[in-house]
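Ticket #4471: structure export looks truncated?
Reporter: QA, pipeline team
Priority: medium

Steps to reproduce: submit the single chain below to the structure queue and open the exported record.
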Amino acid sequence: MGVSLAWLVLSCTEGHVYKQVLDRAQQQNLNRDTITGIDSIQMAADYYDQHGTNKEAVRAYYLLGCAYRDAGEAPNALEAFHEAADRADTTQADCDYGLLMRVHSQSSELFKSQLLPYEMLDELGKQRHYAQLAGDDKSAIIAIERSADAYRMLDMKDSAVNIQLRASELYEQYGFHEEAAIAAGPIIGDLVERGDTARARRCIHRYEGSQSIFRDGEILPHKADHYYSKGKYCLAVGKMDSAEVYFRKLIEPGRNASQLEAGYRGLFLLYKERRATHRGQAPLCPASGAQDGASPRVSQVADSMEKYADLQYEQVIPTLADNNKDNIQQMQSLYNYSRIQSEAKKTAERDEQQKSMIIVLLVAVIALALVAVVVAKLLGIVLKRPTTHYINPQIDARRIMMTGSGAIYNENLSDYQYGQKNHHDGQ
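Actual output as written to the record:
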């Protein structure tokens, strides 16, 4: 009784400690701070896996995955998120669908960073499913919107644009106006490229209604790429002067390499369009310095094209360097994930082989034991038979001798008794 009480007190104390560990990790996650204490969270996950409910185990493994995510260990994070999903019991009335939705949301982000679009789409489908079960319309639409990134990775641009456009409309339908505006921005240029200027115009209007991107009618510096999309729209509808204004906004002082590259590319396209417009027009007064009868205006446009093509090329180099750096990091993460998956597969195969070997050995031992028993019985019978044949003839001979002696004795006794009888009768 005393031992049981002590064990109960110890278990309660241990459970309280691990609950505090998870509460601290959850608060760090909510505050968007880096989650620390991975070892403690791992111990908490192991504890709740053995002594807690399914709901507690899901929470523990989810926070463990978030901790590995913050530590930059994507493969371990994915493994923890998968463990969390496996521990969930969706048949229980108190199943936390919201937590399951977050588990699959985090997994999809990690698969995105690993450049694994099909796995990402699978996780996003589950995120949307559990978001709907939890009654979280916004998160369900987020899952739809983020699937557009996976289709871009698969080089299915039209599908990606249609999905994001649909997500923007759903946000608007459910009253999430800010989210609707933000979702509309990235597809303006794509809509212009496929000639859908009407939808592009509506997306521009929706995007510029965002209160988190625009301040007093001016876009925030880190969102200035919008000027390129709007400039492309103006160029497509013949508003070249407006297009030039927006492209030049991208080459103002303080812009980053990507924005400068977009601005110079836009100006190159602008002057290319102007050259095509003026090429067929005869010069009113050919200049003496113009070659092949080209007008000064056409020559000036050609010079501008060459200038902005060179400037764009100069900005492409650092942009490509940054992209290559990101790609190298992503490929390194992909390699790490693939390596860990391969090692886990090999370990599982080795375990299966060991189990098979153990089963074969057990069967062999049992078979040998049965053979040994059978052989022992057969040997026992064979060993007993000679002894029986050796003893039995002696016993039979003795019995015959005894039987024969008894018969002679009985015969003599009968003769004696008969003689005695006759003797008495003669007297």
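Status: closed, not a bug. The export was complete when the record was re-opened. Leaving a note from the reviewer for reference: Strands lie at 214-215, 218-219.
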